[in-house]
Amino acid sequence: MWLIRASVSLLLCCSMPADARISPKVIALQRGLYDELQALERSALIANHGYASSDGSAFGQLRMIFHEFDRQNQECITAILRVLALVDHTLENTIKDCEKIFDLPSLESENIIFRDVTRPLLLRVAELCRQISSDELAGLEATMEAVKEEANGYRERLDAAREDMRTVLEQLEKLPEALWMVNKIEGPVHRLKLRNVEIESSIMEAVQNISHRQGLLRASLLDAIAQSSHDSDDTDLITSFLEGWENETSVLAEDLSEQLQMWNNQTEDTMHMIATEVEAILHNLIESPVTAFLEGENSLKCLAEYYTNVAVQAVVTGLENIFLCFGGEDALAKPLETIVRLLALVENDVDSICQDLQNCFRSGGTHQADRSEMMSCSEAAEPILDATEDFIEAKMNEIFFHLEDAIFFEELHTEACLYYKARELMMSEAFINLRYRRCNGAEEPSSQESLGNSQYIPV
């Protein structure tokens, strides 16, 4: 381009007829072009966006590319208008202003959008200037026609580029919020903790009811023994049984609490792990096309189409909704109801046995010889209470395993849900990859390759 600039400079020094004239048709073309480009210049001023300064990220660099294009495009249109405005009957001023065209830094711009949209028109005007400065007026009309045709293409390219830039910027305002998935799980994690607190609170309330009932039974049984036998062995037997029941209940409460806490911790860890993975996928999904565009590997049109692709939005939404797999507030509602019901049944059953023993002790004559050779209440109480202890232990195990099974099922349900959603997202991503490759004219991969590499957005 420096050769053209040099030729213009030399021609400025050469003798050129001051009264060199241009045909009326060229003048008509010049006026039409001038009016059209002037309107484009005004619309460029109106459409100029307030871009944020680059923060070094791919998004920041993209905004700077857009800003640079707007600025360089504005400079070029202004310079071209100066040339067209001076294409008059004498040409002398036109030659002087043509030299400024070749001094534009944007002529050698590496801006991707500028090179695609504006540079072709700039080169046509540069050719026009070369002809004018070389006094090649015979071919001026054909060159002006070529400039007009290029200007029509420029207008279409500019409209498309502005629309694509607007689309990309609008999407970039929405999408980055989805990137910070780790922050988004704080809500589900908090709800998970609240749910477990409520579950534990319900269980503890049922245990406290049993403890209260155990206290009443202890008092009434010991009172019945005191009124009848005054036998310390009976007192020790009842005390040992009730303490054993209290201990079993207490151990169960601790085990249930520990089981819930362990499940809560494991679930929370899994959610954080998935959030980290999802965040990486989203960054790749959203940022990789921008990086590819900045490296000249895809077009602005494909970038805009990519971000407005329904499939991309579906993947983003799907990734955000993946935490729904971890169940709602009623995930353990039915198991909890069963646990509370079983605790109440154990309490009622044991209470019924203790009431019968209490009535037996209150019936009197506990240590008198039984004429029917039946065992005394004291003698009968020991095997009955031993069997009741076995019953209590079995029921406590049943309650514990019921919660364990419920948690295990919830884990299976979560795993199945996660697999299903992951598979669904993988298929969506494979479809996005295919659309993306087609838009950029890249060779389409085989179906197996698409699925196998679906976690990577092609760049």
UniProtKB/TrEMBL annotation:
Question: What are the boundaries of the signal sequence?
Answer: 1-20
**Coiled coil (UniProt feature):** 130-175
Query: Sorted alphabetically, which keywords does the UniProt record give?
Result: Coiled coil, Signal
Superkingdom of origin: Eukaryota
Supply the name of the protein.
Protein TsetseEP domain-containing protein
